[in-house]
Design brief:
With 382 residues, the chain is an alpha/beta fold. The protein is 22% helix and 25% strand. Bound molecules: flavin-adenine dinucleotide (FAD). One of its GO terms (biological process) is D-amino acid catabolic process.
Length: 382
Amino acid sequence: MDRRTLIRTGLATALLAPLTTPRMALAAEPPLIPIRTDPAQVFRTTVCLRPFRAKGPRIESESVGRKQVIHNYGHGGSGWSLSWGSAAEAVWLAMQSSPRKLAVIGAGALGLTAAITAQRAGAEVTIYAKERFPFVRSARATGIWSPDSRVAQTTAMPADFPVRWERMARTSVALHESYVGSAGNPVEWIDYYILRDPEPESLPTAPEAPEAFDPGFASLNDRLQGLMPHSGPVAPETTPFAAAQVRRAANLSFNIADYGRQLEADFLLAGGRFEHMEFHEPSDLSRLKEKVVINCTGYGARALWRDESVIPVRGQIVWLTPQEGVHYGFYSHGIGVLARRDGIVVQDFGPDEAFGWNDANETADPVAAQATLEKLKTVYRA
Ligand SMILES: Cc1cc2nc3c(=O)[nH]c(=O)nc-3n(C[C@H](O)[C@H](O)[C@H](O)COP(=O)(O)OP(=O)(O)OC[C@H]3O[C@@H](n4cnc5c(N)ncnc54)[C@H](O)[C@@H]3O)c2cc1C
């Protein structure tokens, strides 16, 4: 597994440190129970589209007729992770005219966090959306803190994006942490393992292959050094993994079934209202009574705002039933696994960075799901 493979999972920060650090290797603690990979454990397969923009998420203000619209969409594979920080940026723009009432379009991760942030800033908020949890795309995410996963393109992001991104990431992590320990465990610290095998000393000369398309996703996590707690090598023999090298880092895991419900509850408790509404073009916003609107339509922004800078990056997740005592995550040879309370999610990141690029097919592929399970089986020692 190479550096770029790790980077595209958004897990590079703590995990790319050399595996041979002078520190003594940690033991896997408590002893890790292998995940049962029997197909009978599978209870569903879901597909989701990451709303990727080469320039990074669109967070800016625009006048549309008599409305002031603050866009807050296009967070790629980092929408949950960056949600609170992105909300802070968007709400700051929205509050410039001190509106008493404010509309949010969209009830996914970005819409709910923007709405709650606006309430905390003193606004009365109504969310207008055609779908709510559990039907929004945000409900089909892996649920790991991955703030720079497919969030921008190195060559296209504006020069100030890394600084804005760092601010969003730091704001977000503090707000996510405020949910740790809440009833229902919407956010938890978990141990995440990176499994690697040494690169072969010398590779046989490969026949000339055509250059593969490379989306060139930006890697920004180095800016967050020290933000996450412990990380270190683990003695592989203390784990059930077959890999020769194992590294462990603490990470935040989102139990999305509960987090979505809690965000909705927090919004309603603070006096928020939901209204079911679908918008077909920007002029439909004239139906709203609020003058200031935060637009959190995710991938839906591509159609609604005719914004072709939003590229779908498809991802499929195979869900296994939660397993007693299994409460960790790992990345191994293109497979990412996260054992959440609402299910064990298994995702295949494919052979290269282009996997899922510009693929808007949201139908689950059972053959690929079977192949994902087969790969998962090879992660553990016989
Ligand atoms: C496989 C996969 C795994 C992922 N894993 C992670 C992860 O582990 N961590 C992480 O941080 N991110 C992850 N992501 C990314 C994350 O899921 C997205 O960035 C995030 O869900 C986007 O949220 P959103 O609120 O912008 O969009 P959505 O969840 O799509 O919400 C959009 C809302 O707008 C509404 N809407 C849209 N169009 C209209 C319209 N025309 N009229 C009315 N309402 C409309 C929808 O009904 C919905 O309520 C993952 C993505 C995928 C595909």
